[in-house]
Amino acid sequence: MKFFILMCIVLLNACSSLEKQNKPVFLDQHSQFYLQPVPKELWGHSSLQKLLITTPQDNHELLLQTELLPNQINMVGLSPAGLVLFKLTWSQEAGIQTNTNIMAKGIDAKVMLAYYQLANWPIAVIRLGLQDLLIKLSPEDQQTRDFWRGHELVFSVEHKAKHNLMTHYINHYQIKIETISQNIIEF
Asked: What is the pLDDT of residues 26-67, one digit of tens each?
């Protein structure tokens, strides 16, 4: 009987910790995205990107170093001078762990990771994590991912030759993403 009670407690704790680990990332007031595991074709990829975030009030620039491992994503946000703004690690088992060194107004590490996935993961995988949003590819060139809530275009990610451009039409900001380097890492 003690073993049965102990197993029930262990199962209840496991269920409650799973719920905490799979929390959505809020992209705006109405839209959520559940982070998804790294697709196999992206395992071992590493990138360094320069982001320019433009809002009606301000501009922010940062560097983003990202490593994609089979069971984990590591992301570091750096100021243009090289100061570490945040470190983020995500896995499906442990959820998101962030360490913020310097508060950067308007830069949320969790949202950066969500947008990274929305821009790079295969469409079928993205659909698994979307809540209250639909994704559609532009019919003209298949290079723009449009995210819709009902009949309203919320944001888009446009893949261009030299950069990607994420535009949030509701919250009125843009993120221009230039890839500086891409590498394959050993894991």
From this structure: 998 899 999 999 999 999 999 999 999 999 999 999 999 999
Is it the case that residue 7 has pLDDT exceeding 60?
no
Phi, psi angle pair for 14, to nearest 5°? -65, -45
**Closest listed residue to residue 35, CA positions, set 99, 88, 78:** 88
Closest CA to 99 of 91, 90, 28: 90
Strand runs labelled E in 79-140: 84-91, 95-100, 130-131, 134-137
The answer to whether the CB of 62 falls within 8 A of the CB of 111 is no
The strand pairing partners of 75, in sequence order, are: 66, 88
Torsion sign across C-alpha atoms 6, 10, 16, 20: positive
